[in-house]
Design brief:
binds iron/sulfur cluster, four-stranded antiparallel sheet, 20% strand
Length: 459
C-alpha cells in the first residue's frame, strides 16, 4: 500500500509522503557568505579553544555540572551562588531578547555552532566528496555509494574531534586529555560519554542537520514574540519584485524573474518570497543568490536583503531605537549592574556545614556527640588557612582534627569536626549554633547549624 500523501504544506525537510527531503543547497559565494565564512572560521577556533584557555589559573569556561561549579572567564560560581546565577541567567535571557529585537536571528545565521559547523565545515567537505548540488542530488537517487561512505568516514572523524571539544566545556581540558591518553578500561564511563557525544555530533551533522533549527531548537519558536516589524530580518522586497515573471526583465513586471536561485540556495529549503518563516535562520544565502542574478540581469542588488519588515513593506526607514529596545536595554543594564555589585560584595570563601554520615548524634560519656562535615571553598587567589570556630555555644566543645584548615587558591576542601554538648543544654533535643571560618586576613564567613541530642534533655 502506498503511503498517504499530504495535500497541504509540509515541513521543508519532508516530502509530501512524509519521507525525508534532503536539502542540497547551491552555493553562491556572495559578499555576505564571504563575511560569514571569516566569522565562522574565527568562531570555530574560539569554540574549540575556549575550554583550554586559562585566566587567573582557571579555565575560561568550565561548566562542571557534576560538581555544580561553573567557571566563566576565571570566576567560579557555585550552586550556592543562587542570586548571582539567577542574575546571570536573567541577563543572558534579556540579552537574547534584546539582540533578537534588534537584529533578528543573526545569531542563528552567523554564530550558532550548528550553522557554523554545518555550513563552513561539513558542507564544504561534502562538496569535496560529492560535488555540487546537482551531483549530490544524483547521488541521492542512486543510493549508497563509495564517495558517500568515504565522506561519512571523514564526518565521523571530525565528529569525534568536535564531540570531544564540546565535552571539554563540561569536564575540563585536563580530564579530557587524561581520558584521551589512557585506556578506556581505566575509565569506562568517561569512554561511554565520549562515544555518545561523538555519535550524537555525527548524527546531527551527517543526518539531522537543518532539522535541528527547524524542528528541535526552541529559539525559532520564540521568533514570533521576540521580533517586531522593525527588527532586522532577511526579507524579499515584494514591492520591487512582484509581479514576478520568468524570462528577461521587461516593462510591466517586477524584478523577480522567478529563477528559484534563492530557493535552491536556502539551507533550510524555504522560499523567502512567501515572507518570514519559522525555518529562516537569517543566513542570507538567498540574498547572495539573488544578488548574483540581479547582477546578471543588470538590476539593482538587494531584492532580497537584510532589512526590517516595515521598511520592506513601506519603503521607509525603520527606527532602531524604539520603546521595547529602550526598555530591554534598561533592564539589561540594571541586571548587569546588580550582577557586578553582588559579585563584588561576594565573600572570598564559601562555607557549607553538613551533618556527618550515619547516626545524627552519639551519646558518649554523658554527652551528645555530633559529627559534622565542614566544606570550605577558597575563592581567593592565595592559599588560605581557615580557623574554624563554633559560636553561640560556649558550653559545647569543638574538636577539629585539622584546625586551621589549609585550602589552596580556588580549591575546595572538607574536614570532619565533632561537637560535644550536654543533653540538658539542648531544647527538645536541638540547639541552633553557628560555625565561623576566619582566614589570615581576618575575613570571616558564618553558616548556621543545628546540634542534635536526645529528646527531653536527659541522656
Ligand atoms: S530564507 Fe534565506 S536567510 Fe532564510 S534560511 Fe533560507 S537562505 Fe537563509
Ligand atoms: S533569486 Fe531573486 S530573481 Fe530569482 S526567484 Fe529568487 S527573488 Fe526572484
Amino acid at each position: 500500500m502506498s503511503p498517504p500523501i499530504a495535500s497541504h504544506r509540509v515541513l521543508p525537510t519532508l516530502n509530501q509522503d512524509g519521507t525525508r527531503r534532503w536539502i542540497r543547497p547551491r552555493l553562491y559565494p556572495g559578499k555576505t557568505w564571504r563575511a560569514r565564512r571569516v566569522v565562522a572560521w574565527l568562531l570555530m577556533v574560539a569554540f574549540v579553544a575556549l575550554p583550554w584557555l586559562e585566566l587567573r589559573g582557571k579555565p575560561l569556561i568550565l561548566l562542571d555540572v557534576v560538581r555544580r561549579e561553573f567557571t566563566l572567564f576565571g570566576t567560579t560560581f557555585l550552586a550556592t551562588d543562587g542570586v548571582l546565577l539567577m542574575l546571570l541567567l536573567l541577563a543572558i535571557f534579556v540579552g537574547v531578547v534584546l539582540v533578537t529585537a534588534l537584529v533578528g536571528r543573526a545569531w542563528c545565521g552567523w554564530a550558532c555552532p550548528q550553522t557554523v559547523y554545518l555550513e563552513f565545515l561539513y558542507r564544504p567537505i561534502e562538496r569535496l566528496f560529492e560535488g555540487k548540488r546537482e551531483q549530490q542530488m544524483e547521488l541521492d537517487k542512486k543510493g549508497p555509494n563509495l564517495r558517500r561512505y568515504l565522506k561519512n568516514g571523514v564526518f565521523l572523524l571530525i565528529s569525534v574531534l568536535l564531540g570531544n571539544a564540546f565535552l571539554a566545556y563540561f569536564v575540563g581540558s585536563k580530564a579530557l586529555v587524561h581520558w584521551m591518553t589512557s585506556s578506556p578500561s581505566e575509565h569506562p564511563q568517561a569512554f561511554l560519554a565520549m562515544a555518545a557525544v561523538s555519535a550524537l555530533t555525527f548524527f546531527d551533522f551527517a543526518y539531522f542537520r537543518e532539522q535541528m533549527c527547524t524542528v528541535a531548537c526552541p529559539y525559532a519558536r520564540l521568533q514570533s514574540v521576540l521580533l517586531d516589524p522593525r527588527s532586522l530580518i532577511v526579507g524579499y522586497d515584494a514591492r520591487r519584485g512582484e509581479p514576478r515573471a520568468k524570462g528577461k526583465p521587461r516593462p510591466g513586471v517586477g524584478d523577480c524573474i522567478d529563477c528559484n536561485a534563492c530557493v535552491a540556495a536556502c539551507p533550510t529549503g524555504i522560499d523567502i518570497r512567501h515572507g518570514l518563516q519559522l525555518e529562516c535562520v537569517a543566513c542570507a544565502q538567498c540574498a547572495d543568490a539573488c544578488d548574483s542574478i540581479m547582477d546578471k540581469i543588470k538590476k539593482p542588488l538587494g531584492l532580497i536583503r537584510y532589512d526590517a519588515q516595515q521598511s520592506l513593506e513601506t519603503g521607509g526607514q525603520g527606527r532602531v531605537l524604539r520603546p521595547r529596545v529602550l526598555i530591554y536595554t534598561g533592564i539589561l543594564l540594571a541586571l548587569l549592574i546588580a550582577l557586578v555589585l553582588v559579585a563584588a560584595t561576594r565573600g572570598s570563601a564559601e562555607l557549607t556545614v553538613l551533618r556527618g554520615i550515619g547516626a545524627p548524634f552519639e551519646l558518649r560519656d554523658g554527652l551528645a556527640q555530633n559529627q559534622i562535615r565542614i566544606k570550605v571553598q577558597n575563592r581567593s587567589r592565595e592559599t588560605q588557612r581557615y580557623r574554624i570556630d563554633l559560636l553561640d555555644a560556649a558550653d559545647a566543645r569543638l574538636v577539629a582534627p585539622e584546625n586551621p584548615l589549609e585550602v589552596t587558591a580556588g580549591a575546595q576542601r572538607s574536614t570532619s569536626v565533632f561537637v560535644m554538648v550536654a543533653p540538658n543544654r539542648l531544647s527538645h533535643g536541638q540547639r541552633p549554633v553557628r560555625f565561623r571560618i576566619t582566614d589570615q586576613s581576618g575575613a570571616r564567613v558564618e553558616a548556621p547549624y543545628r546540634l542534635l541530642g536526645p529528646e527531653g534533655g536527659q541522656p
